[in-house]
Amino acid sequence: MSAHATAPVRGPRQVGGPRRPGRPRRPLFGNRPTRSPLLRALVKHSVMIITLTLMLYPLLWMFGASLRPDNQVFTTLGLWGSDLTLDNYAAGWSGGDQLNFSRFFLNSLTITVLSIVGNLLACALTAYAFARLEFRFKKTLFALVIGTLLLPYHVTLVPQYILFNQLGWVNTILPLVVPKFLATDAFFIFLMVQFIRALPSSLDDAARIDGCGHWGIFWRVVMPLSIPALGTSALFTFINTWNDFLGPMLYLTEPDSWTVSQGLASFLDATGQSAYGSLFAMSTLSLVPVLGFFVAAQKLLVEGIATSGLK
Amino acid sequence: MAHATLRTRPLLGLGLGLLMTVLAGCGQSLPDHSADELRGRGDIAGGIRFSWWGSASRNDRTNAVADLFEAEHPGVEVRREAADFGNYFKRLNVQGAGRNMPCVTQLQARTLGDFTARDALLPLDPMIESGAIDVSDIPEAVLDTGRGEDGRLYMLPTGAAYDALMVNETLAEEAGVALPEPGYDWDDYVTFLRDAAEGLPDGIPATALRGGLPNFFIAYVQGLGEHMFDGNQLGFSRELLVEYWEMWEEIRAEGLANSPAANAEEPPSPEASYVASGDVLSDNRPGNALTPIQGTLDGQGEGQRMTSLPLPSGPAGQGNVLITSGLSIPRNCANVPTAAAFLDFWANDPRSGDTYASDNGAVTNTELLRRQLDDPELPDLKKRELALYQRIVADDPSIVLYPPGYLAVFESAFTRAYEDVAFGNQTVPEAVDTFFAEANDGLAR
């Protein structure tokens, strides 16, 4: 078949409706219009830079602290101390007897990649069913799926643990990964349903005339057109999984199977001696994949959210 | 277009069948222990899981002890599970609910009740009677902190922590005030704060605001010879707590303590505390915080020295109580003899004591403690910490039997109620009433 269609793209929304002709725009700062565009730009950028600095300061402080000796981490609120060292990076990376951050990064990456694959496949299939197929109890089932969003995680914590323990899955990555292949993330199902519903159904009809069944329509028509929604789901799954602590803490008990978030937590303990320098050094490194993925996928993120009606 | 229609009945049936299978499988059965196993007797072989709390440095020491045990018993594998204190107990509660606690589980006296109330632990008394676990070198008063409400021993106390008054000696000298004398009481403590405040530089209060710290209040109650708990209810009177919080409000009103806002913003770890950065003269902190606090002071490069003192006493004697941590064997453990051997090794083997070096409270075995105090390589600060423990034990400290839910209910309600007072949201009597209602209700469940 040759279904070359493009996703419906909406233009940028105009906030506050169309401007009335002849009415001067209200100035951003002050009651009187600023005459010099240069001055206005200067003020605007200054405010933005100051706000950005304030928001980034904790991160910058963390980076600065990671370069200070361990006993000088808390001696200043400034960005740099008198002594700068990379020892925290070396000590933190090698960790202790059973701690090694290369292992933790590998574990986190494995779980994250599998979670993304699972979520994209399972949620897209489920979303296709809810958006395109007709079957009995469809609305009830969809309401049930969406209803799981209202269920607090703590309610299912113990039953899930008992179940996975019975299956012998504790201390393996299975409890963290297998549910992703069973379309358990209702948010992504909802996001994709919204997106797929916006695709013209005439594309399905055209594909069907060309001989496609449901699988062909899903794989050759719907999926290629849903890349923005898939990208958004992938990005959110990446961030959620990479930063998840409770799940790995419960199910990955032995240090060999720890993720980055567990490795970071192991530097701290309220009842003993903590290693803040190593913690800040490894925290800095652990941000790199998240930032990198976000920068790479932010265009898809914006498109996915804008075109699925989620705000 | 014409939408496709799927047959859903077979799928629903399959789903229901799966659900029933899963539900029928829930509920882990407990191992059927023989009489010998319950006495800790049998082959020391196979694998056991061992869990504890701590940070990376403590993990290294703990792993080293577990390695020694494995070397001592070829064929035994100790699988290790560590987490920091707060998250450790979150996980342990879930593991307990799923009857999947590690064979050797570290507990603290304050959390023991949560697990004895669920009948999740094996009593250790038969293992002691059979000789599988030797407790002859652990003082009776310390051993008793591992007992449940029924008087049986459920936790072998291996480390004893205590709270201490940390005082910045250098600042005290500069303020021209002498440290409180041994046996000082609460009046002496407040007098010390007042005298110090007169000579301290502006912006450095004499103490951190600790009216909401449960351990400080426990010292107050013990010093008066009162009881913290009566079964699953509060054992002290409303009037006593009113008196205590009014004392702290006087301290705050006189400017002897830092502000409630500053107090609320303070990071919990000792390294990042105000007393560690020299921003307050004194504070109540765990005794083993002396080393990390001095470490941060050293990092300031001003040569300030920190010292630790017992908490204030009262008419009934010393206020200090011991907060022990120790090892337990849960009912779901299928390898009790090996777990019992591990407990015995941890508590009595000299190599174990030397390696762990009282990292989580002073070692409770007096012989191992003596070895550490005699060790010329043990840092001076650590020796001072252990010496203070010896002093507290010598004064026969009271034992607090913490009810189930102590940490989750009592501690959070106590701190919150005092913060309401300090921030001016409630009067002291109102906050005391709120606290009593919340704590008694929560502890009774």
Put the structure in a nutshell.
Chain A has 311 residues and is mostly helical. In chain A, 61% of the residues lie in helices and 1% in strands.
What does this structure look like?
The complex is a heterodimer of chains A (311) and B (445). By secondary structure, chain A is mostly helical. Chain A has 2 domains: 37-85, no CATH class; 105-307, Orthogonal Bundle (MetI-like fold). Chain A is 61% helix and 1% strand. Chain A contains 13 helices and 1 strand; from the N terminus they run αααβαααααααααα. In chain A, helix 2 packs across helix 13 and helix 3 (101-132) packs antiparallel against helix 10. Chain B is built from 19 helices and 12 strands. In chain B, helix 3 (56-72) links the parallel strand 2 and strand 3 (76-83). In chain B, helix 11 (238-253) crosses helix 19. Chain B is globular. The termini of chain B are far apart. The model of chain B is unreliable at 1-6 (pLDDT under 50). At the A-B interface, strand 1, helix 5, helix 8 and helix 11 of A face strand 1, strand 2, helix 3, strand 3 and helix 4 of B.
